[in-house]
Design brief:
The complex is a heterodimer of chains A (257) and B (412).
Chain A lengths: L1 H21 L3 H9 L6 E11 L5 E12 L3 E10 L7 E7 L6 E6 L4 E5 L15 H4 L7 E11 L2 E10 L8 E7 L5 E7 L5 E13 L2 E11 L4 E12 L10 H6 L2
Antiparallel strand pairs in A: 1-2, 1-13, 2-3, 3-4, 4-5, 5-6, 7-8, 8-9, 9-10, 10-11, 11-12, 12-13
Chain B lengths: L1 H20 L2 E13 L5 E15 L3 E12 L3 E14 L3 E8 L21 E4 L3 H4 L3 E10 L2 E8 L24 E3 L14 E9 L3 E11 L4 E9 L6 E10 L2 E13 L2 E16 L9 E17 L2 E12 L11 E13 L4 E10 L4 E11 L4 E12 L13 E9 L1
Parallel strand pairs in B: 9-13
Antiparallel strand pairs in B: 1-2, 1-22, 2-3, 3-4, 4-5, 5-7, 7-8, 8-10, 10-11, 11-14, 12-13, 14-15, 15-16, 16-17, 17-18, 18-19, 19-20, 20-21, 21-22
Classes of the chains: A alpha+beta (257), B mainly beta (412).
Chain lengths: 257, 412
């Protein structure tokens, strides 16, 4: 009996200690979220619906291509609507190291490709509730990530991680992310303004497994303070279709789709 | 009347094409009215219909861009701004037809951007997409990764379009005697010998974007060959008149431009060396009152943000080499541009201030603008063009033309 008790005790200690060592840190959770397998390339049509507090909506439609080049990721976006931005294109090269992104915009009216600063990541994208930073991959170590708790939300077991920027000038005092434990896909994210008040809530509405990879195909960002919302839907999503490297060039920015 | 008929036929025919071939149609309709602040006279009453017909395929594309301008109530101008066919190959593209070609990294100044000439009938006020004149050309772009070699052949020379003598933008030249113009030498006949050639290499990298270019072209503005008529009837020589023969001359140039980002600031530069331009001179020994000189034209610019305000500033210098003190032009001409832009109300209200500042003549053109987008298609623009400073300067001389204006635009 004593032997059995000893064995059970050892087993409990082992399980507990293994459990403790398996407990991920906030940084590791966000690392797994940011670096979740997404395939080598992706193509989709992004429809962004901007809804103001009166319920009136404006729609932006973009065809986008992304490709992983190992130590860098390239993205090219072709604006399909509204009419005044049609045939405009935008290209972003982001790097795994600390190098700032390279960005260019092609303006068809003046037939010119211009290098633009990637410093304005806090700017809102096309008048939506998403900043460039909200839409892109934020650098992992730009924030300090702290695991707050684990809880179940919308039926998913989630990690709840607080992210505080290392840059005091950053537009958010903190963000809080709810991340599914089994897939490291986000469920919800709260954004707090510089005064610490809740500013925006991002809700992931629909996730689909496409060619073996989780893809967020529907999400909604609600600005709580100004009572307007932006919905994003991805359609015609394709993963790993061997998008050629030549897609991510000035030639294609100017040619369009 | 003939132009109206042409325009209607164009619309009907292209409308039919659009349905039959599923050609993509886009463009805008715009009404533009401006009045001079001093006199209250209308400086412009213009209605515009811009049509873009496009068809894109995997191997070829087509574009036609007619623009219809209606001035006052009955003066219709049809401008076929672009009409070309694209052919796509694995490593190169070919564009043949009337096209606008834009080179360089500078904004609002034209240094290596010399392929498409300018329409200056309304000075520098039209939007930059409307100020360029399309040229009939063959353009070949050869690609190696993010490097591009571009060759442009223009068989027919197109000069700058200047304001008509009844335009508020026409400046009456100041002659010491009655001039008589002889326009016989002012036309360049299209031929292989008279064609223009342009070449450019450009690279887009993660560190810097840059271009190198060279051109064998015609000077877009004619040189004024002046011959004095001397009257000896009184016994002593008296200047009684001038015979002026405007003539276009060959001009060659080489240049480069770059843009790069340094800590969130975009640094841009562009320079060109112009070889053998004809300048006006008061040297009595000079033939036809002209002298040939080389000159350097360059710009350095910065784009940066302060908070949510986007700012851009450029310094531009034109420097005539081996300067002769009898020349009419300044040896050095300095200019600057400044742009501030602020978008608000979820990018529906746009505030903009753009200025050309003549540093040599201490004059300026100041252009504040306010644009409000009622929806994704319909916008209203209220603005002003304010000319200030030295009345001999290229901006100050238009001080009587300071105006306020409004544009209503519908995009489709």
């Amino acid at each position: 009996m004593k032997t059995l008790k000893f064995v059970v005790t050892v087993a409990i200690v082992l399980v507990t200690s293994f459990g403790a060592s398996a407990q991920l840190t906030g940084r590791e959770i966000i690392d797994k979220t940011y670096n979740r397998p997404a395939g080598d390339d992706q193509t989709s049509i992004l429809t962004m619906t901007l809804i103001n507090k009166s319920g009136q909506s404006r729609v932006r439609k973009i065809k986008q291509f992304t490709k992983d080049f190992g130590d860098m990721e390239k993205k090219i976006m072709f604006f399909m609507s509204p009419a005044d931005v049609k045939n405009t294109s935008f290209m972003n090269w982001s790097y795994d190291n600390d190098k700032a992104d390279d960005q260019w915009i092609y303006l068809p009216a003046i037939k010119k490709t211009k290098r633009i600063s990637s410093d304005s990541k806090s700017d809102y994208f096309m008048g939506s509730d998403f900043t460039y930073d909200d839409l892109g991959d934020r650098k992992l170590d730009a924030d300090i990530h702290t695991l707050l708790r684990e809880e179940t939300i919308n039926g998913f077991d989630c990690y709840v991680v607080e992210n505080v920027s290392k840059d005091d000038e950053y537009m958010y005092s903190k963000t809080v992310s709810w991340i599914r434990k089994e897939s490291f896909v986000g469920v919800k994210k709260e954004f707090y303004d510089e005064d610490g008040d809740l500013l925006k809530i991002l809700t992931i509405k629909k996730v689909e497994k496409i060619s073996g990879y989780w893809v967020i195909v529907s999400s909604e960002m609600k600005n709580i303070q100004k009572n307007h919302t932006t919905k994003i839907n991805l359609t015609d999503v394709h993963v790993n279709t061997n998008v050629p490297a030549s897609k991510f060039t000035e030639r294609m920015m100017m040619r369009g789709i | 009347m003939k132009k109206i008929v042409i325009a209607i036929i164009l619309l009907v025919v292209t409308g039919g094409m659009t349905r039959a071939q599923s050609i993509d149609v886009s463009g805008f309709a715009r009404t533009y009215e401006g009045a001079k602040t001093e006199s209250g006279d209308f400086s412009i009453i213009q209605q515009t219909l811009n049509l873009n017909f496009e068809k894109k395929g995997e191997k070829a594309a087509f574009k036609a861009n007619p623009m219809l301008y209606l001035y006052n109530s009955d003066s219709l101008h049809l401008n076929l701004r672009e009409l070309f066919v694209d052919m796509y190959f694995s490593n190169f593209d070919l564009r043949v037809g009337k096209q606008q070609i834009v080179w360089g990294k500078a904004d609002g100044v034209f240094i290596t951007d010399v392929v498409s000439p300018l329409n200056l009938t309304e000075f520098l006020l039209p939007d930059f997409d409307e100020i360029r004149i399309g040229v009939i050309a063959t353009k070949l772009d050869y690609y190696v990764g993010n490097n591009t070699f571009e060759f442009v052949w223009v068989p027919q020379f197109t000069p700058i379009t200047k304001p008509a003598s009844n335009s508020i933008w026409y400046i009456q030249p100041d002659f010491p005697a009655q001039p008589t113009f002889n326009w016989n030498n002012s036309e360049i006949k299209p031929s292989l010998e008279n064609s223009e050639m342009f070449i450019k290499y450009s690279a887009m990298t993660s560190v810097i974007d840059f271009d190198l270019m060279a051109a064998y072209t015609w000077d877009d503005t004619p040189a004024m060959h002046v011959n004095k008529i001397i009257d000896m009837s009184s016994g002593s020589p008296v200047l009684s008149g001038l015979n002026i023969t405007p003539e276009y001359h060959r001009l060659s140039l080489a240049g480069a431009s770059f843009s790069s980002e340094i800590k969130g600031v975009i640094l841009r530069g562009e320079a060109a060396y112009y070889n053998g331009k004809y300048f006006q001179t008061e040297d009595p020994a000079a033939k036809d009152a002209l002298i040939q000189k080389d000159y350097l034209n360059y710009v350095l610019g910065l784009d940066f943000n302060i908070g949510d305000v986007k700012l851009s500033a450029q310094f531009i210098q034109k420097y005539i080499l081996d300067f002769d003190k009898n020349m009419i032009d300044d040896e050095i001409n300095n200019m600057a541009t400044f742009l501030a832009r602020y978008d608000m109300l979820r990018e529906t209200l746009h505030l903009e201030l753009f200025s050309y500042i003549g540093l040599t003549n201490e004059d300026a053109l100041i252009r504040p603008k306010l644009t409000y987008d009622f929806d994704d298609s319909f916008s209203i623009l209220l603005g002003a063009n304010i000319f200030v400073g030295d009345e001999n300067g290229q901006f100050g001389r238009y001080h009587d033309n300071t105006m306020m204006y409004m544009k209503l635009k519908y995009n489709f």
